[in-house]
Design brief:
The complex is a heterodimer. By secondary structure, chain A is α+β, with helices and mostly antiparallel strands. Chain A contains eleven helices and nine strands. In chain A, the strands form two sheets. A four-stranded mixed sheet of chain A has the order 1-6-5-4, with helices on one face. A four-stranded antiparallel sheet of chain A has the order 2-3-8-7, with no helix packed on it. In chain A, helix 7 packs antiparallel against helix 8. Chain B has a single domain, classed as 7 Propeller (Methylamine Dehydrogenase, Chain H). Chain B is built from no helices and 30 strands. In chain B, the strands form eight sheets. In chain B, strands 1-30-29-28 form a four-stranded antiparallel sheet, with no helix packed on it. In chain B, strands 2-3-4-5 form a four-stranded antiparallel sheet, with no helix packed on it. In chain B, a hairpin with an 8-residue loop joins strand 18 and strand 19. Chain B starts with 9 loop residues before the first strand and ends in a 6-residue tail after the last strand. The chains are: A alpha+beta, B mainly beta. Strand 9 of chain A pairs parallel with strand 13 of chain B, so a sheet runs across the interface. Chain B: Pfam families: WD40.
């Protein structure tokens, strides 16, 4: 419960009431005043001073001065009269009512004030924006006007130039006619000096070239042929059509494959110099394969692979040998290995991939794994769709699958 | 603010929409008329002659031909005759008298495939020597023709036996400063640029700029070759200084990336050989000025002269269309007037201002 302050003092004259309330040591910041037309409340915790005024006052015109330990209120009376006392005696209910009204009124007033402030801020922002836009528009218009002036000037010049062109053309015509006339008269009368002098007066370049004799043009050039060659490229497609990163990768892999040689095998000491070269061994293997000696070819390829695991052709060819030897599982393994090495898929290694797919497909079919075989044949067809034999084989396999299911 | 308008301005003066695809547009010398060449949707070729009158284009004449026309030039005719040499989609070279266009003055089946580019030299009172026309085609050959010799070219630059051919996309004449000397520069789709010397009948220089060459042009045809600009796909163009040739390194060059798309054409201003305009695949035009370096030659490592390339400054750029600008031609009579055609089936006449103070 707040402490009611009763030691206030008040004085009055005809139109003003002065109330002085001691603040009893409370800081001025903590003083809160609610004032309406017939009620004044000053609360400075823990103290409270309220007064129900004898007569109505003009709240807007009244002042409150809070400082120096005292709050002085200068209240403007609505009616010029002398008050007998500051308080009116009204019952509790009325008091409560008045209090509530006062609070409501204050709240309303605050709400109105904040609304008014918001509206004002909005107005100002709008105004600022509009002035900005106006300035920018002006700038733009100015530049546009300058551009249009340029344009108009240029078109005027153009029109003028065309006029001069036309006039020059007309004059040319006239001169031409005159010239022919003069030439005719020349032949008839032979007064050459006069006509020549008249002609030289005119300086248009077109006319000058007419007056000169037609230049003797040099004879047509004697025929020649220049043979040219174009910048070489490893891949047949133009640079702009190629998939450069993949091609680079493929070329790098090839280069690595050529270079990589695993030299730490003990058996190497037994071999002759040429037998250490995987390329030589591959050729040997190929020759043995064509001769029909499949086991020997496999041996050659084994050695070559031991030396260099990265050449896909070795695996692919060994797969072919295994096929002939009916080592179907080994054939499948080898052709899979070859296909692994032939990634990334570019047009340059297409024939090699084709062979590997066909060999693996055949091996699968021999093992009666027709579905996998068909997959490989389809992959091969993708690489080379024009191969009739492949297509026939693929169809056969499909029939077999459909026959058995 | 007035400083902004001291740069040359590119003003789109007239814009005309056509009802056919236009591939090339050329000014008729000594007149305010130009010719547009292209093909109708029905597959026939068309030549239209327009005249500028009071800010509008008036159609003077329309000539329809059997085959679509790809390119044309007035470079090899005299100022009186003003015959137009055209290359068409069928590989035929025809020279037309536009007053009597029913049958050509000269006609030959120049190539087996479409003629991509044509250039003429020796006419219009510019330069000395016989008037000649050069054509470059998709069949990989470049042929030089003289209208006095029927059926066979005067010079034929073809790939060797067994060589895979590459499309020739552009040709240009240059170095025609006296009766005998002449050079032809050809650009191919794999980025090759080859310079042929017609006096010695040999390949004088070649290089590769990695991307297909869309357009080459010498800054002047009738002088000792000074500069060559080559534009390519991927928005790059190269300016070569042609005065000093090093035996191994060739010509010095400076390259610039602009347009962010294919640069379709480059054309030098006839009145100032250091100013040129490039036309891009996004419908934009860039105006450039070349600045020469302090020294145009320097001594290389082995005491042989090497050229020094200068620098290129962008003067102005403007976007006039959304489709590529396929052709551009400066008027030889009025400085700053140019006509350009683009693949949105329209032709525009542009005025470039303040070129005399650049």
């Amino acid at each position: 419960m707040p402490l009611i302050v009763r030691d206030h003092t008040w004085t009055q004259n005809q139109n003003t009431v002065y109330i002085s309330v001691p603040l009893k040591g409370v800081k001025t910041a903590n003083v809160h005043v609610i004032c309406t037309d017939e009620y004044l409340k000053v609360s400075f915790p823990p103290f409270l001073f309220e007064v129900f005024l004898f007569g109505p006052i003009n709240e807007e015109k009244s002042e409150a001065k809070i400082g120096n330990g005292v709050a002085v209120f200068t209240l403007q009376k609505k009616r010029d009269e002398s008050w007998e006392q500051l308080f009116t005696n009204i019952d509790k209910d009325k008091q409560k009512q008045i209090r509530e009204q006062a609070i409501l009124k204050v709240q309303e007033k605050e709400a109105e004030k904040s609304k008014a402030k918001a509206a004002r801020v909005q107005q100002e922002k709008k105004y600022a924006l509009q002035t900005m836009m106006k300035l920018e528009n002006e700038e733009r218009d100015r530049i546009q006007k300058m551009k249009d002036e340029e344009c108009a000037r240029a078109t005027a010049e153009l029109g003028f130039w065309r006029e001069t062109q036309r006039k020059a053309a007309e004059e040319n015509e006239n001169q031409h006619n005159n010239q022919t006339v003069y030439q005719k008269t020349e032949r008839a009368n032979a007064p050459p000096a006069v006509t020549l002098m008249h002609n030289t007066g005119n300086t248009t370049s077109g006319q000058r070239s007419k007056k000169q004799k037609p230049k003797d043009l040099p004879a047509p050039r004697s025929a020649g042929c220049i043979q040219i060659s174009f910048t070489p490229r490893v891949f047949p497609t133009a640079l702009r059509e190629s998939r450069v990163p993949e091609e680079e990768e493929w070329l790098k892999k090839q280069a690595e494959a050529r270079r990589a040689v695993d030299t730490d095998l003990a058996e190497l000491d037994d071999l002759r110099e040429e037998e250490r070269n995987p390329d030589w061994l591959k050729e040997k293997g190929d020759k043995l394969f064509t001769a029909g000696n499949y086991q020997a070819a496999v041996n050659a390829y084994n050695l070559a692979i031991k030396l260099n695991r990265k050449i896909p052709a070795l695996f692919s060819n060994r797969a072919a040998c295994h096929l002939k030897l009916r080592n179907l599982h080994k054939a499948i393994e080898d052709s899979s290995q070859a296909l692994e090495l032939l990634k990334p898929a570019v047009t340059a290694n297409a024939p090699a991939r084709l062979k590997a797919h066909v060999r693996r497909g055949t091996a699968f079919c021999e093992l009666e794994l027709y579905v996998e075989g068909l997959h490989d044949y389809q992959a091969a067809l993708e690489i080379d769709p024009n191969n009739a034999a492949l297509r026939a084989d693929a169809d056969k396999i499909r029939e077999i699958i459909q026959g058995t299911t | 603010m007035s400083a902004a308008l001291e740069k040359p301005q590119i003003i789109a003066h007239i814009h005309k929409s056509l009802n056919y695809t236009v591939f090339d547009s050329r000014w008729i010398p000594c007149s305010a008329k130009f010719v547009c060449m292209g093909n109708f949707a029905r597959g026939t070729g068309v030549l239209q002659i327009y005249e500028i009158q009071q800010g509008e284009l008036q159609l003077v004449r329309e000539i329809e031909k059997a085959k679509p026309i790809k390119c044309g030039t007035f470079g090899a005719t005299s100022l009186q005759q003003r015959h137009l040499a055209t290359g068409d989609f069928d590989g035929s070279l025809n020279v037309w008298n536009l007053e009597v266009p029913e049958s050509p003055v000269y006609s030959v089946k120049a190539h087996k495939e479409i003629i991509n580019s044509i250039d003429g030299v020796g006419g219009l009172g510019i330069g000395d020597g016989a008037p000649e026309i050069v054509t470059g085609s998709r069949d990989g050959t470049v042929k030089v023709w003289d209208s006095r010799q029927k059926d066979t070219p005067v010079v034929n630059m073809e790939p060797m036996e067994g060589e895979t051919k590459r499309d020739c996309w552009t040709v240009a004449f240059g170095h025609a400063f006296n009766d005998q000397d002449r050079c032809v520069c050809a650009g191919y789709d794999n980025g090759d640029i080859k310079l042929f010397d017609l006096r010695n009948m040999s390949l004088r220089w070649e290089t590769n700029i990695k991307n297909g060459v869309c357009s080459v042009e010498f800054d002047r045809k009738d002088i000792n070759m000074n500069k060559l600009v080559a534009t390519s796909l991927e928005g790059k163009f190269h300016v070569f200084d042609m005065r000093t040739q090093h035996p191994t390194k060739g010509f010095a060059s400076v390259s610039e990336k602009a347009h962010k798309s294919t640069i379709w054409q480059v054309r030098h201003l006839p009145q100032n050989r250091d100013i040129f305009m490039t036309a891009g695949g996004a419908g934009n035009l860039h105006l450039w000025k070349y600045e020469y370096p302090a020294q145009r030659t320097k001594k290389g490592a082995d005491d042989v002269d090497m050229g020094v390339a200068g620098s290129v400054n962008l003067l102005q750029n403007v976007t006039v269309s959304t489709q590529p600008i396929s052709s551009l031609d400066w008027s030889p009579d009025k400085q700053g007037l140019c006509v350009c055609s683009s693949f949105d089936q329209s032709v525009r006449v542009l005025i470039v201002t303040k070129l005399n103070t650049v």
